[in-house]
TrEMBL record:
This is FAD-dependent urate hydroxylase HpyO/Asp monooxygenase CreE-like FAD/NAD(P)-binding domain-containing protein. Residues 4-159 form the FAD-dependent urate hydroxylase HpyO/Asp monooxygenase CreE-like FAD/NAD(P)-binding domain. Gene3D superfamilies: FAD/NAD(P)-binding domain. It comes from the Bacteria. InterPro entries: FAD/NAD-bd_sf, HpyO/CreE_NAD-binding, L-asp_N-monooxygenase_NS-form. It comes from Staphylococcus carnosus (strain TM300). It holds the Pfam family NAD_binding_9.
Amino acid sequence: MRVAIIGMGTAGVSILRQLESHSYFKELDIDVYDDPQNMGQGVPFQNDSSQLLINLPSKDMSLNFNDAAEFFKWYENQNQFKFDNATYLPRFVFGHYMKSYLEKFDQEYDNIHLITEKATEMYLEQGFEKDAKIQYFVCTNHQQEACRQYDYVFLTVGTMAYHDPYHLKGLKGYIKSPYPTYETLNDVKDTDNIAIIGTGLSSLDVIRYVVKHHPNLPITATSRHGEFPSVRGNMIDITLKHITKENFDKILRSHFGVVPLESMIRLFEKECETYDIPLEALIHRKVGDPIKDLKYDLAHPEILGVFQSLLETIKENMNWIWNSLSLQDQEAFMKKYMPILKANSNPMPPRTARLLIEEIEIGHVVVKKGLEDVRYENEEYVFEYPDQGEPDYYNVVINATGPKTQLKDLDDDDAFIVDIANRQIVQAHPMGGIQIVPETNQVISPRHGTLPHLIAIGQITNGINQARNGVNMIVRQSVQAVESLYAFHQENR
Ligand SMILES: Cc1cc2nc3c(=O)[nH]c(=O)nc-3n(C[C@H](O)[C@H](O)[C@H](O)COP(=O)(O)OP(=O)(O)OC[C@H]3O[C@@H](n4cnc5c(N)ncnc54)[C@H](O)[C@@H]3O)c2cc1C
């Protein structure tokens, strides 16, 4: 059977690992696609500054579904990278751990072929006879001759390009994406005044790099709310007692097949009561001063850890939770509750919080909120705040507003996804990303219906897999997707 994996980051390598672990593996012929730089490492775990840390303790994040500590063991057994504090290792180290599997497999097996190019087009062919199988063609370089035929395709292309909320892309001094952070200052003069738009996780990454390497300080980090993510507390094991499939099934049966948002929230409140989480106090704990907010989190690792662990467990189960809601309730959830979920999940390591406090206190970083508009005038960026008379001026702007989630916002930076949407192979999900079957990750095409052998995993599925694209959740989806591939293979041998 001919298999393609398009995109060799976390999801792609994870799929390959699952494929390799099966006794029928040698019966597959596998092509994997990515550019030479990202092949095996992906974007979040690419080579970058060692200050950028993974957001889970090293012992809790791995590509092995049955061994969360596999990455840490790999780290301990190699000599290339060594760090004094390995509790949260740099992200690029995780990238090398992933890549080590790709390299090992590539050397060991002749049924894996690395194609060091990005896919540019994909199209389908299906004969007219009854039960005719769909064949998938993946192409590179926009050349028909460069198209290869497959029975099974994994679409693991990662995050979409960054938002450009103020339409500044292409202007001099505008850095459209903060990664790799060590390239952000390539064309920046020592005297330039720098602002970073966004105060989320990628903003933290770039702040830490720029503050250490740019002489003209302070730099400004600004956004509408000016709030940083929370700080990781002491995580615990959680067993959900109220948000369970059984309880959801009961509600679905009495509510025409959906779980009303209020019912879900009531169950969530009960979970909080079970774990003695002071929900109201925690969600309203921020006072709007970044130093006070970070210090509060650092001082309350126990209760925050329990809250974050609960949210993390809910995210792991988000596929059936999220897809039990009606579309209207999903929209209501996004407005009312998603900001709370976002602010309290994917927390930063305590070490990052301490560093940030230090940089703000010594005046290297200024955090601003209430950003209303950014314009480019006379070769300068003008930042407007409604409660500030005069605007602020900068020469360089680093965009850390996060990746796009909606297909309608994509442009040439995501040409492959635009292409397959244009060919009606994929279609937009109203909540973001593309339509897939939640249980199986099979793509739902507007032209061909459900495509059983086109499997999408990762950020591109964010409408269905809301908040469910961390490493461990991607691995879980890969395990199940590969089981389905082998079930099909066995039936057709
Ligand atoms: C900055 C950042 C930090 C993160 N840190 C963590 C963390 O610490 N822990 C955690 O659990 N999660 C983290 N995440 C979440 C993260 O999204 C996932 O963990 C994971 O890396 C995503 O895997 P992926 O395979 O979907 O994407 P990626 O790992 O980025 O892989 C996608 C790959 O597809 C390739 N590609 C794109 N288009 C094409 C094409 N047309 N043809 C061929 N190849 C293509 C890209 O080059 C890339 O290599 C982080 C995310 C970001 C953005």
